[in-house]
Specification:
Blueprint: E1 11-14, H1 22-27, E2 32-38, H2 41-44, H3 47-57, E3 61-68, H4 74-86, E4 91-96, H5 98-112, E5 122-123, E6 133-137, E7 149-154, E8 161-166, E9 174-177, H6 187-206, H7 212-234, H8 239-259, H9 263-275, H10 279-294, H11 299-309, H12 318-335, H13 342-345, H14 349-361, H15 363-368, H16 375-387
Parallel strand pairs: 1-9, 2-3, 2-4, 4-6, 5-8, 6-9
Antiparallel strand pairs: 7-8
Helix pairs in contact: 4-5, 6-7, 6-8, 6-10, 7-8, 9-10, 10-12, 10-16, 11-12, 14-16
The structure holds fe (ii) ion.
Length: about 400
Amino acid sequence: MQEFSFFLPTKVYFGEGVIRRVGEEASKLGEKVMVITGRTSARKTGILQKVESSLKKKRIKMILFEEVEPNPSFDTVERGGEISRKEKVEVIVALGGGSPMDAAKGIAVLSTNSSPLDLYIGQGKVKNPPLPLIAIPTTAGTGSEVTKYAVFTNKKKVPHRKEVIGDSHLFPEVALLDPELTLSLPSSITRDTGVDALSHAIEGFTSTRAQPLSDLLALKSINLIFRYLPETINNPHNLEARSSLLYASLLAGIVIAQTGTILVHAMGYRLTTDFGIPHGRANGILLPWVYEFNLPANYTKGALLTRELEDKIKDLSEKEEAERGVFLLKSFLQRVNISEGLEEKNIKKDKIEEFAKEVMQNKRKLAVNPRKATLKDIIEIYKRALLGKE
Ligand SMILES: [Fe+2]
């Protein structure tokens, strides 16, 4: 069997009502907490109040940073870091989707390391251990609660760029996954984040860094998302379906914590920074086309993925079975209407060329893509995904 290593230092609690553990978990780590969240939803849904009351019970001092915007900027993180240092915060609690969670990771870093954030962009550049982080996701998709990655938007660059910190210091200390928190998510966010998780699982499964244990989690995650995402969109209050999706997102997060993402994420970032397409939706638009492009690299695994989604069809060769997976993936993403609003963006050919050239610079993600992609290949994939050209 293939040699592999597997690392997950985060303590995970999963279940209805586990958010009530936040006070107890925080009390093991310090006496003063900074809760990082978005601008409105945690308060509007009453989730923030649950955190407050749990912390109060343990007599933990709390300050609140409610300023995280979607795709958090360097400035927001710098501001949070400054407050944290001034207030001598000891524990960070991240509450929200990927954006508050990533911002919280950055703030935890800047609490114990000098500014600016730019110093830590890249891999393994964080010097001092950041403040301990308790991550409480309120969407089912990002997986950031169990990864060592944080993505920020650099607004000093024109057009804006997504930049990543990858560092094992960034794994949260504790992740509290409470499916009840996802019950009030609007269907478009449920869809976009769920598809982000699907992209994590499929990218992790096809990455050259895939390994037996992460593959096991990836296949289960893909299976659950196919089964439960449409059901959750149709019946947003189905707690069982919500739980399965959050679980699938957790599994996919653990997968990319081992493998990282590949070409889909590399190609998706500019769709978000330049056209405002949400991260998960951007990935979903590209995913089947990248999957199809990568398929010849490993038909055996492609066939395995197909068989996770349906029973083996008699008389299909391995290659045919793998190719059927592309059809299943395309139909699934069409069914959840992943390309919603894409036409209005009116993305032109010269933009595609510019994006593709930038993707070619992303050596890290290209190196783990299972099939070598040239500039021409990447332009072609963008065209198929964005302009509907075969
Ligand atoms: Fe993602």
